[in-house]
Each structure stands twice: as C-alpha cells, then as structure tokens.
Description:
Elements: E1 3-4, H1 7-14, E2 20-23, H2 25-38, E3 42-46, H3 53-61, E4 66-69, H4 72-81, E5 86-89, H5 96-106, E6 110-113, H6 116-125, E7 133-137, E8 145-147, H7 157-170, E9 173-177, E10 182-184, H8 188-204, E11 210-212, H9 229-243, E12 250-253, H10 257-260, E13 264-274, E14 277-280, E15 300-303, E16 314-320, E17 329-337, E18 345-348, E19 369-373, E20 382-384, E21 390-392
Parallel strand pairs: 1-19, 2-19, 3-4, 3-12, 4-5, 5-6, 6-7, 7-9, 9-11, 11-12, 14-16
Antiparallel strand pairs: 2-13, 8-10, 13-14, 13-18, 15-18, 16-17, 20-21
The site of pyridoxal-5'-phosphate has 15 residues, from loops.
Amino acid sequence: MAKFQCVDELVKALQPIDPVYCLRKNSLKIAAETFKNNFPGDVLYAVKCNPSEMVLRTLIKNGINNFDAASIEEIKLIKKISPESKVYFMHTVKKTNSIHDAYFNYGIKAFSLDSKEELEKILKVTKNAKDLELFLRIQTSNEHSEIDLSQKFGANINESIHLAKLIKLKAKKFGLSFHVGSQCMHPVAYSKAIKDLGTIIKKSGVIPDTINVGGGFPTTYPDLYPQPLQNYFNEIIKGIKKLNLTKEPKLICEPGRALVAESGSTIVKIELKKKQNLYINDGTYGSLFDAGTPKFIFPTRAIQLDNTSSSKRLTPYSFYGPTCDGLDFMKGPFMLPSNIKTGDYIEIGQLGAYGISLRTRFNGFYSNEIHEVEDKPLMSIYEADENHNVKTLFA
Ligand SMILES: *Cc1c(COP(=O)(O)O)cnc(C)c1O
C-alpha cells in the first residue's frame, strides 16, 4: 500500500491497467469522531462493510473499539488486530461450530437471535453459560431505506413478547435490537422502531439492559441527500425518553455505511466507449455491486491524462463491467464530460462501504491494488470547522 497526496497524482504515477481502490484515513477519523462524540452510547462498527485492515486500524485508533461481526472469520480478524476490542456476534442464524469457537476460543459473550431454535442452539453449544448477553432482534419496517432487511431477519411483535421472557430467564444481560434497513433516509424510522420495542417491553414486562438501534445511518449520493446525522441521534434520544422506562437501558448502534463510505474511491479505466455506454475495467462482480441491481448512483469525476481539457458539459453515462454477464451493467446516470473517451480514467466515490468487500474473481477479473490518498472525498456529510470540531453538512 503506497500513499499519494491525491487521486490524480496516483493515476499519473501508476497509470493503472486494473482497477485501483483508494482509502482516506482522514475521512474515517472524522466519521468515527462524529459518532463517538454525538451518539449517546457505544458505537459498534459493522465489519462487513469494509474489513480492510487499514480501515479497522484507523477506526480503532480513533476510538471505535466495539465491533459487530456476523461470522467467525470477522471475529478472528478483529481479535487478531485488537484482542482487547469487544466483538458482538450479531447474526441471528449462526453455525454451531462458530458459536462454540466464538464463545470458548475468542471470549465472545454477546449474540443476537430472533427465534427460539437459535436461543436453544446458543444455550446448548455454550453449555448453558451464565454470562451471556443476548440480543433479541425484532422485525421492523424498512420503508425509509434503500436496502430492505426486514423480510430476512427479526421476530414479529407476538413472537418477541414470548422470546423476551424466555431470554430474560437465561441471559445475564438482555438486549433488544433492530435494523431499519441500510441507507435509511428518514430519522423517524428509528423512533418508530423504538416505539415497537416499547410495545414488546410493556407486554412482556421485561425491561432490556441494552437497546441496540442497529445500522442504517445514511451517507450521501448524487440523488440522496440525507438530513444531518444529529437529527437521527436526536430522534433516537427522543424515542428512548418516550418509553419512560424505570431503568434507563444502555444504548448501542452498529453503523457501517455512514462510518466508511466516504473513505473509499474506485479508480477505473475506460476500455471502450459506445455512445453513452462506457465499458470499464471494474463492475458488479468487482467493487460496483451496488451500482448494479440495487441501482445506487455514485459520484464520478473524469481523470484525463493526455491533457485534453475535460469538456465542461457533463452528460449522463451508463457503465458495463468487464465480465461476460449482461447483468454486469450499471445504469447510473453517472455524470461525466461529453468528451470522455477510451483510455481515460474515472474516480467513482462513496465506495468505502460495500465496495472492495464485495469483489469476486468471476471471469478472471480481480484487482487487489489498494492505496492511501489524502485528498477530500467527492462528497461528504462531514466537515470539520477551524477548531477541528466536526459538524455535519446539510444542517
Ligand atoms: C449490515 C448491518 C449493519 C450495518 O448496516 P449499515 O446500513 O451499513 O449501517 C449493522 N447491523 C447489522 C446487524 C447488519 O447486518
């Protein structure tokens, strides 16, 4: 991993044939500080979003020392580089071997579940351990989010009432959790979910030690401008207050996207231009999965090395990736100069989240060129003032 002042300098120096992935430490620092200083509880980083060692180390250095893992490999990764960090095993359907390994070999006590069967599995594998912290994940509306998780995970209200009582009997600490869906565009999704928790608490008579409001905190894309993060935090605080609990639960959150999206860019080269379609060297089987079927629009910027001055006129383009699959198509629109051509490069921004973590080797196309850059991301919800206090944009 080399370090460059900016993406342009990197492209000039390397003139890369394969895709290159750039990471920015400063973006990670600003995002970590914003969550640490403003979220009223513990901040867990959702490892799946970007498990690069540089990302993990930078977050740890900036005060994030709790992690949300979904597999034993993610747990091993965190424990290898930071043995003292606390890892929560937050997948609701786990392999028995993984639960065993996590509990007995890595000291993991926190697990999530949404069914009686998984509860029984965890208790059996840990030999009825008395020091478990168990999180019941409830199903919640994902109507305000770009990526829906509500069909796959979560117990409904009636199941939750029943399960809450069962878990309370077995766990040292009892937690309730939800996930409003990824890239959640309205803070009210959180207070609605917290209200559902209130119903479960009331009907089960079980007060949680911890409430986990999950991930879903948004970043910004050319067509998606979220409200300031502080509005999300305020909505959560307001929602918890309204529950009027006799004992205040500890709060945790599990951001992925909002912590790391801005830190990463993908640099691609144009292999062929057919009208408004650009055939590029990375695609949906590489770091651009979310530009495919989920149809995310990412910010783009042309890098033309041959001194043709970029046309000021931006026009909408679609991308085709390098593989032989017709699904390797990214509709966009991606706005780029009208004179962009074969051989030019494009910086595609906001790919620190769900970018390099989704790469495959399909069709023989794979790049592992990852470098550090020190310039600003193409878009940002974070901005530091002159005293290095972080404020979020769009306030
Ligand atoms: C993916 C995931 C997250 C992170 O979600 P973002 O939308 O990226 O913030 C948090 N918690 C769980 C359980 C997840 O599956």
